[in-house]
Amino acid sequence: MRFTDPSVVAWQGVIRRLPHVDRVGVEERAAQLGKRSIKTTAKQQGIRLAVSMLDLTTLEGADTAGKVRHLCAKGVCPAPTMPEIPSVAAICVYPSLVATAKEALHGTGVKTASVATGFPAGQVSLDAKLRDTEDAVAAGADEIDMVISREAFLAGDDTRVQQEILAVKERTGDAHLKVILETAELGSYDHVRHASLLAMEAGADFIKTSTGKAASGATPGVCLVMLEAIRDYAERTGRIVGFKAAGGVSTSKAALHRLVLVKETLGDEWLTSERVRIGASSVLNDLLLQYAKTETGRYGRAEDFSKE
Q1: Residue 168 lies in a domain
Q2: CA atoms within 13 A on the CB side of 138
Q3: The whole model's pTM is what?
Q4: What range does the domain containing 258 cover?
Q5: Is there a domain that residue 155 lies in?
Q6: Residue 35: CB partners within 8 Å, gap ≥ 6?
Q7: Known catalytic residue: 178?
Q8: Is residue 74 domain-resident?
Q9: HEC string for the chain
Q10: Phi, psi (rounded to 5 degrees) for 53
Q11: Pairing status of strand 54-57 against strand 90-93
Q12: Calpha distance 29→26 (Å, rounded)
């Protein structure tokens, strides 16, 4: 299967020249921004914002329709005793459970997202990836999270990486496409930046750090490299591409730190669920516990909030 989109053709036959990333500089800046202290009112605002950006996720072999409905109910109303806490941005499930989530979320404003393209490894044929995407969209998915072919990227086959993204993008229709880089498998910040640029050039609506299944994901350094790539791409093309931090964002502190990175790299106008997402299955409860502490001055109990 061949494609003639200019953004893909532009890369064909070009010797890869990876943009250099100053590893020490990136990690020093990320660490410095991680020391920002966020107190009381600002912390409450940050937690509410982080909740509104969550892609609340369940991607397990034991997922059932009942579990997904429960997760949807929690996503719509995370804390009944704290009505100021907003709904999450989306519920993310496997394609086979999209219809269940779509029905449960009808009329709530919360999006239905689905992983696709042979998630998480992506080691299936392009035809299988496209069928996976088509099934999720047909079931009602508003957003598709696809994985890139890491074996193609690491072999230097940038054309194939972009052609596959473009092909999936064509199948998503009106649904937004989030392209997962799986940064832990890319090997260096230079590769992370290059993969980010490839995905954006091929039409990604969001670029995402990880599947959440790898050893690491949204580390501060990786997030900063991807955010700077988004900034540079937006300045060059005028097109806005969103950012999704997934993998390892399991505490309120980590979630707020990622929002600080966004604010300092891209500006306040980026602090919206239309441009930033946090992919998580467990961080919501910690956000709620931390919010309750700002209200009462003491930590609540984990059992005060449902696990799903």
Answers
A1: yes
A2: 7
A3: 0.91
A4: 40-295
A5: yes
A6: none
A7: no
A8: yes
A9: CCCCCHHHHCCCCCCCCCCCCCHHHHHHHHHHHCCCCCCHHHHHHHHHHHHHCEEEECCCCCCCHHHHHHHHHHHHCCCCCCCCCCCCCEEEECHHHHHHHHHHHCCCCCEEEEEECCCCCCCCCHHHHHHHHHHHHHCCCCEEEEECCHHHHHCCCHHHHHHHHHHHHHHHCCCEEEEECCHHHCCCHHHHHHHHHHHHHCCCCEEECCCCCCCCCCCHHHHHHHHHHHHHHHHHHCCCCEEEEECCCCCHHHHHHHHHHHHHHHCHHHCCCCCEEEEECCHHHHHHHHHHHHHHCCCCCHHHCCCC
A10: -100, 0
A11: parallel
A12: 5
Distance CA 4, CA 167 (A): 11
Residues 6+ apart with CB under 8 A from 121: 147
- CATH code for the domain of 244: 3.20.20.70
- Please give the tally of structural domains in the chain: 1
Tens place of pLDDT per residue across the chain (308 aa): 444 454 444 444 444 677 789 999 999 999 998 888 787 789 999 999 999 999 999 999 999 999 999 999 999 999 999 999 999 999 999 999 999 999 999 999 999 999 999 999 989 999 999 999 999 999 999 999 999 999 999 999 999 999 999 999 999 999 999 999 999 999 899 999 999 999 999 999 999 999 988 878 899 999 999 999 999 999 999 999 999 999 989 999 999 999 999 999 999 999 999 999 999 888 999 999 999 988 776 666 665 666 65
Assess whether 102 carries a catalytic annotation.
no
Say if 142 falls within a structural domain: yes
| Annotated catalytic residue, options 102, 129, 169, 244 | 244
Instruction: Tell me if residue 145 is catalytic.
Output: yes
Among 102, 111, 129, 208, the one annotated catalytic: 208
Amino acid at 145: D
Token pair, residue 33, equals: 């921004």
Task: Spot the catalytic one: 145, 158, 205, 286.
Answer: 145
The contacts of residue 124 (CB under 8 Å, 6+ apart) are 117, 118, 132
Q: In whole angstroms, give the CA distance from residue 97 to residue 92.
A: 9
